[in-house]
Amino acid sequence: MTQTMAHETRTDDVFPVKGVDHLKFLVGNAKQAAHYYSTAFGMTCVAYRGPEQGYRDHAEYVLTSGGARFVVTGAVHAGAPGADHVTKHGDGIQDIALEVPDVDKAYAHAIAAGARSVAEPYDLKDEHGTVRVASIATYGDTVHSLIDRSGYDGPFLPGFVSRAPIVDRQPAIDAGLQPKRFFQAVDHVVGNVELGRMDEWVEFYRRVMGFTNMAEFIGDDIATDYSALMSKVVADGTRKVKFPLNEPAVSQRKSQIDEYLEFYDGPGAQHIAVATNDIIASVDAMRAAGVQFLDTPDSYYEDPELRARIGNVRVPIDELQSRKILVDRDEDGYLLQIFTSPVQDRPTVFFELIERHGSLGFGKGNFKALFEAIEREQERRGNL
Ligand SMILES: [Fe+2]
């Protein structure tokens, strides 16, 4: 009875979230990054802020694809805030910003639960209205800004101005050469944390945001001969915001998480999974634009055990095999997924495309096949 009561009064309500507001990338060259996400990821640049608007430190481009919103920010002079982040980490995700209905309440709860403050609640204003913002620290140098934009109708945040897309994809869309969107939402954001600290971060999200454990992997489940990791997933009550958290596990050789932690110089966001309704069209368009995806051996598709487990999916397996798209199935349904190579020179941040058909999972059955593919790449870089 006590447990039932505890469950009913669990803390979702003290930290309600509407979803991921945006992901902020700090990069060495925002102009080129914005071009890359426009051409290779089919995103639309909708807003900008920089020296032309009186912001002397950064050029910032806002790109959207459906409900997904990225901000790429680059320093325009030495010593600008955030320039040290790029020096230390390379291009990376500095802010996983969450939209919340009540910034002050969410912030107060987080701080009372032990979160470190990065910015107390404050207002940003322009002629389009007011946005309330606060920020708290999470793993590494990553932060969660908490944003209430209900009183605002501008293109992004006060100070940003609308701008035209960087490239015009309309002719390619009209000609049937490209899908209207390559993806429409952020599905999950994965963090790599320090060895032995995953459970602390799971507890952090439980305590600070009322997130609950959604799924659990243990080392043996996702170990290959060389690479091993531990992973747990936390999510808000609505399952709109999902944060898998990885830590390296002891194995024969350096794991992919160790490689990330070394090259990112600490914990940080490892991959962003974006949701698509048509992974075939998305992968074809992205490949045509030069995006590199991880290879999957033909043996993966030819394995009779795997074929039996997968059953029928919406396209023939050959269609998946020719594109190296992975399949996983659980009691709720199935999912199709594929992972890009890292999107910067350092072997750190990468992307996942995911098409869900009922499954709420993360491709647990594919972890081993995936890691073996990653290890082949690690070996080529001399980091295995
Ligand atoms: Fe993922």
UniProtKB/TrEMBL annotation:
GO terms for molecular function: 4-hydroxyphenylpyruvate dioxygenase activity. Its EC number is 1.13.11.27. The keyword Manganese does not apply. Signal peptide: none annotated. Coiled coil: none annotated. Residues 19-149, 185-341 form the VOC domain. SUPFAM superfamilies: Glyoxalase/Bleomycin resistance protein/Dihydroxybiphenyl dioxygenase. InterPro entries: 4OHPhenylPyrv_dOase, 4OHPhenylPyrv_dOase_C, 4OHPhenylPyrv_dOase_N, Glyas_Bleomycin-R_OHBP_Dase, Glyas_Fos-R_dOase_dom, VOC_core. Its cofactor is Fe cation. Keywords: Dioxygenase, Iron, Metal-binding, Oxidoreductase, Repeat. It comes from the Bacteria. PANTHER family: 4-HYDROXYPHENYLPYRUVATE DIOXYGENASE. Belongs to the 4HPPD family. NCBIfam families: 4HPPD (TIGR01263). This is 4-hydroxyphenylpyruvate dioxygenase. It comes from Paractinoplanes pyxinae. The gene is hppD.
